[in-house]
Amino acid sequence: MTTRAVLPIKDFANAKQRLASILDVDERAGLCRAMVEDVLLAVEACPLIDDIAIVTNDERAIELGRQFHAEVINEPPEKGLIPAVQHAASTLAAAGVDRMIFLPGDVPLVTPDELEAILDGFAEPVKGICLVPASDLGGTNCLVASPPDCVVFQFGIDSFRKHVAAAGAAGLSPVVLKLPGLGLDVDTPQDLHELMTRLAFKGSESHTYRYCMEIDVDARLTSVIGGED
């Protein structure tokens, strides 16, 4: 049975606009690249994942993906996360891939153990879906689809609940797992503050942590949310 990880990667230069209050364009691009690299390292180390595919038109993302021998799937003409993942799922299904694991590029705390725990529930090529929600149960921070095109994807606001409903509409009972690493995706200064707090225990093992220390993210965060703790 073949399993492929799919990472849609937005143009680094336009990513993470909600961090514009503390990071400039180049710094946001650097942060995104570091986070994607940490996600790719976790994927590469998971023994249950055979291959990696990235969905992107960004040259810097393509260059990074090649370092991990990732297949590059060009973004479809219609912009957005849903078309990107739907296009990837259709492409993989047509190629005979048994299951797809979707991961965003902004979950740098993900570990190979978490990925293995998710995929362990899909040891056989049976139709099914597994969802890992964000910690607030709003977004979908990881999704396993077997086969890749077994569900209509629902990314965006309240996507976790929408994916549960979409699974039901497809006649599937989704497996739901809450996992601490995958639960945190980085969109806001508050998310970045939580990430830095948790990454402090990992230190130089994390590309994201090293990059954030290089640009002194802690000082930026203190000036913005330091009085909220």
The name of the CATH architecture is Alpha-Beta Complex
Q: Strand order across the biggest sheet?
A: 3-2-1-4-6-5-7
- List segments where confidence is low: pLDDT < 50 over at least 5 consecutive residues: none
Number of helices: 8
Strand tally: 7
CATH class: Alpha Beta
> Based on helices, strands and strand pairing, what is the structural class?
alpha/beta
Account of the 3D structure:
The protein has 229 residues and is of the alpha/beta class. It has a single domain (3-228), classed as Spore Coat Polysaccharide Biosynthesis Protein SpsA, Chain A, CATH 3.90.550. The chain is 40% helix and 14% strand. The chain has helices spanning 25-45, 59-67, 81-94, 112-120, 159-169, 189-199, 207-214, 217-225, and strands at residues 3-8, 51-55, 71-73, 99-102, 128-133, 140-146, 175-176. Strands 3-2-1-4-6-5-7 form a seven-stranded mixed sheet, sandwiched between helices. Strand 5 (128-133) and strand 6 (140-146) form a beta hairpin. Helix 1 (25-45) runs antiparallel to helix 7. The protein is globular. It starts with a strand and ends with a helix.
SSE inventory with pairings:
Blueprint: E1 3-8, H1 25-45, E2 51-55, H2 59-67, E3 71-73, H3 81-94, E4 99-102, H4 112-120, E5 128-133, E6 140-146, H5 159-169, E7 175-176, H6 189-199, H7 207-214, H8 217-225
Parallel strand pairs: 1-2, 1-4, 2-3, 5-7
Antiparallel strand pairs: 4-6, 5-6
Helix pairs in contact: 1-7, 6-8
At a glance:
This protein has 229 residues and is α/β, with parallel strands linked by helices.
Notable features of this structure?
single chain; 229 residues; alpha/beta; 8 helices; globular
